[in-house]
# Entry
Amino acid sequence: MNENILLGHGSGGKLTHNLISNLFVKHFSNPILEKQTDSAILEINANNISFTTDSFVVDPLFFNGGDIGKLAVAGTVNDLAVSGAEPLFLSASFIIEEGFSFSELEKIVKSMAEEAKKANIKIVTGDTKVVDRGKCDKVFINTSGIGILSEKNKEISSGEKIEIGDKIIINGTIGDHGMAIMATRNDMNFSSNIKSDCASLNQLIKKVIDSGADIKFMRDATRGGLSTVLCEIVENKSYGIEINEDDLAVNENVRGICELLGFDPVYVANEGKVVMVVSNKDSEKVLAILKKDELGKASSIIGEVVDEHHGKGWINTEIGGKRIIDMLAGEQLPRIC
Amino acid sequence: MKFIDEFRNKEKAKKIVRAIENISTKEIKLMEVCGGHTMSIQKFGIPSLLPPQIELLSGPGCPVCVTDRKYIDQAIAYARLDNVIITTFGDLIRVPGSSSSLDNEKAKGRSIKIVYSILDALKIAKENPTKKVIFLAIGFETTVPGTAAGVITAAKENVDNFYVFSSHKVMPPAMNALIDEGVKINGYIGPGHVSTITGTGIYSGLAENFNVGCVISGFEPLDLLQSIYMLVKQFEEKNPKVEIQYKRAVKVEGNIKAKEMMYDVFEYRDDWWRGLGTLANSGLGISKKYAKFDAERKFDVEVEKTKEDKGCICGEILKGLKSPKDCSLFANVCDPSNPVGACMVSNEGACHAFYKYNRE
# Structure
């Protein structure tokens, strides 16, 4: 095997065939993929199918707590899971820059296989393109996912059942992924042990759904952070949301770098956090289920849906003041002084 | 977190708010002239805690906001030169010029790199000996010593492809000018970071000449509440003076070594401030001693005629005459993803802070 990816690996010929057989099929092995048919033939018994797609272009490719491969699997699994679906199958498409090291590609593929195994999902089809050096940044990955959705969970993604008095829950600390990426980027020169929270949440979410708890809405708080999700929940609605800064968990080292750069953790990206809106009566039950799981041990009820501030999110600050929360507009940039 | 949590204690905040309520009898307008203070005030919801007769105004404290449009146009002209790499703090890249922005120029293929300090820019110069690297130096006394240190290092190491385009400004002329123009300010929340460098002497004329007090404040919410208490007390007792609330960082004499470096590399010149116009001795240009690092002396570029915004009231906002909410563009056509004026671009700008934390 070559040390680097050549244009020929994307030609559709022998090199492509070898790459698919010796790398992708080898690590992603399952009976559907191994047939190497033009399309994966899936047997799904369901009335409602959940289908999603996402592209991953993260820089750096490898960071504390994960890499682009783990992110590409977990990201799509989470998009399905927060819709209330049970994720079943993934596709994986790679756009690779000529000259990219084969060993790094293999590391990414292994990481995807490992995460898929953890999430109990099969990667059943895919594609590979190689582009001239300089035409993309090392490697881009697109994953699409299919899951099945039971009738009773159909409303979770729309949030139509949200009512005043419902509680807002998040499964742990905020801002870890965004600050882990920031700390790893070469130009920041930080030495830190911040670890991305990148993880597939479907098993955790399944436990909550299987408990029969009254879940009104779920969304993963990725780019734009917690604040953006909260704003999406209330946008154009006849209710508002009020959360308490005291109840938000932020890792000390994340908080430290945020303070240094003038960032607000509620706007920083996460990759393993789900925001749930749960009926008041079931909120403590859901919290207890989440806290028992490794991915939810720092869960907390952070606020509630209120009959005030219609269409807006508000935060009670740690010193007792009040202010709005907003969607992230533009990028957060480090302050000058 | 040590040195942070102590300054965010809810019970202590309540006590200071009660103390303010107890002494405050008259309407009072206090202005902060530091973007960091603007952000803290909004982020912690401080206005929501204060009695209604205390009004907080945001002044010209954000270095990006006061930077002249002509400076951006000139930086863009430099970016269009062959073999030039522009290095800049991130905030500046999105500030609209007359017909473009550094962001737009980057998208068109000009070499523009975001750096976190002048030393990163110097490193880029050393790594690219065939290119000319220009550092866009903006900011008040807080960031000037950093730029000075970068220039001194470049001189020591004989880096001959490194240049600084200075728009550094000093704070006191702007603080005096606002009062001169008749802006009703009863007290200044003095800039903490600036004062760590300058010390307190630069503010003495405020009380003597204008009867306006100044309390140098830290950035945590309890710092700001205590500073507001001190200013209200001065006002109620008719005893304006310069006081330091931020004693853990600011000394009366400031940072003498940093000041020496500043005056070695820079010299005063008249400068144009967005909203305030030209203020005498309010800017810092590179001194003759370090002339070879001065981009303005080195590059002769044609700069397009400056076009001002239509409808944007950044200038009035910077003077504390109007609130961001008074601007017809605010949250309408002007927001952080499409900033019309500089006050909306920077994280520390009054409009950006209002948009993010105080938009009802």
User: Anything to note?
Assistant: The longest helix of chain A spans residues 102-119.
